[in-house]
Every structure is written in C-alpha cells, then in structure tokens.
Specification:
- With about 210 residues, the protein is α+β, with helices and mostly antiparallel strands.
- It folds into two domains: about 5-65, 434 Repressor (Amino-terminal Domain) (Orthogonal Bundle); about 75-205, Umud Fragment, subunit A (Ribbon).
- It has seven helices and nine strands, in the order ααααααβαββββββββ.
- The protein has helices spanning about 5-15, 20-25, 30-35, 45-55, 60-65, 70-75, 95-100, and strands at about 75-85, 100-105, 120-125, 140, 155-160, 160-170, 175-180, 185-190, 195-205.
- Strands 2-1-3-4-9-5-6-7-8 form a nine-stranded mixed β-sheet.
- Helix 2 crosses helix 3.
- The longest helix has 12 residues, at about 5-15.
- Pfam families: HTH_3, Peptidase_S24.
C-alpha cells in the first residue's frame, strides 16, 4: 500500500519543488521534508493542511490515499471553518468566528450524527492528549454536543484559555479533566468555571 511518504514525494516532484523550496513554502526545514519522505516522521496539523493546499489535494488523500480528485473531495468531504490555534480570549465560539483563518475539507461521515453547521476545526497545541491527539494535529469539534458524557473528549474554555481533555462529571458541581499523557495528573475543576464548546468527533491523526 502506498504510504504518505510516497505520495508526498510524488507530488513534490510533480510540482517541480526541491525539498528546500517546499520547506520554505510551508515554514519547516528541508530536513523535516526529507524525514517525511523517508517515512521517519509524518507532517502534522498545520503542515499537513499547507501541503494539501499547495498540491491541491485533500488532507485525507495525503494521510490515507483516499479522495484525491476534486469530484471525490466534494462527494466525500464537507468544508468547515478552521481556526489554527486552540487559545482565544473569552474562550467562546463567537470570538472564534471573528478569528476565522481558513476553511478545511474533512470526511463527510462525521455529519452522520451531527449537523454540518455545528462542525469546526482547531489545531491542538501541547502533548497532554498524546498519544490520542498529537500536538499540531487538527481536530473536528461538534458544537452541538456540549453535554458531557463520561469518556468523551471535549474542547472547553477555562478562564481565557481553550483546553482539550477527556471529561468526566462528579455530580453537578465538579468536572474531572483527564489527560491521555500519563505525565499529566488529573485535574478537578468547578463545573461553573467550565464552558464546553463541543465534542471532538474527528482528528487528522486518524486519517
């Protein structure tokens, strides 16, 4: 089966870019491009999105080899708002809408249990949710799912910061924040201080 490294190199050669030229276009080092093409590591989040834009393909095709053509992209994907950062003063979606940076294609199957207008994407920052969600990966959020169900991963605001964690309620007054990285301890917050923006329903980790 063709790997991401093969698709990336094939597209780079097709477009006539050297590794150094491509690296400059997406803001990484030529060494990073070389590592991607040797299958030593994979591009994440923002880099994956930039590569898809440069080569005029979907991030799903880069990641999995599926849905390369425009017709396929339109048939099998939806276009949703994409915000590159997980931090926002106030931590509410109305603020995020003012900070819209881009639109992104994500798999259409996501909306089988969601409304398309409720989906938006952000980029993960930090390693607290690894290995489930890696830093720089892009995640799809369903803003229509704000009721906490134990074991679900949610994006929420706490103070002036957005966070991504697995959440669990303790009664009506407390919420437990669980990181998937064992280096981070669980946190206990007052429910009144937590505003859930939505549930994570997709990640570029799992293309």
């Amino acid at each position: 089966m063709e790997r991401l490294s093969t698709r990336l190199k094939s597209k780079r050669v097709e477009f006539g870019f050297s590794q150094r030229e491509l690296a400059k276009k997406i803001g990484v080092t030529a060494t990073a491009i070389s590592q991607w093409e040797r299958d030593e590591s994979n591009p994440k989040g923002g880099s994956l999105l930039k590569l898809a834009e440069i080569f005029n393909v979907s991030i799903e095709w880069l990641g999995s080899g599926k849905n390369k053509d425009k017709a396929e992209i339109n048939q099998h994907t939806i276009v949703v708002p994409y915000y590159p950062d997980v931090y926002a003063p106030g931590g509410c979606r109305t603020f995020l809408q003012k900070e819209l940076k881009d639109m992104i294609h994500i798999p259409r199957y996501i909306i089988s249990k969601s409304l398309e207008d409720d989906i938006f994407c952000i980029r993960v920052s930090g390693d607290s949710m690894e290995p489930t969600l890696y830093s720089e990966s892009i995640i799809g959020i369903d803003a229509g799912k704000t009721t906490i169900h134990d074991g679900g991963i949610y994006v929420f605001s706490y103070g002036r910061e957005l966070k991504v964690r697995e959440l669990r309620r303790i009664g009506f007054e407390k919420i437990v924040l669980k990181s998937h990285n064992p280096s981070y301890a669980e946190e206990l917050l007052d429910a009144k201080d937590v505003v859930v923006l939505g549930k994570v329903v997709w990640s570029s980790n799992f293309l």
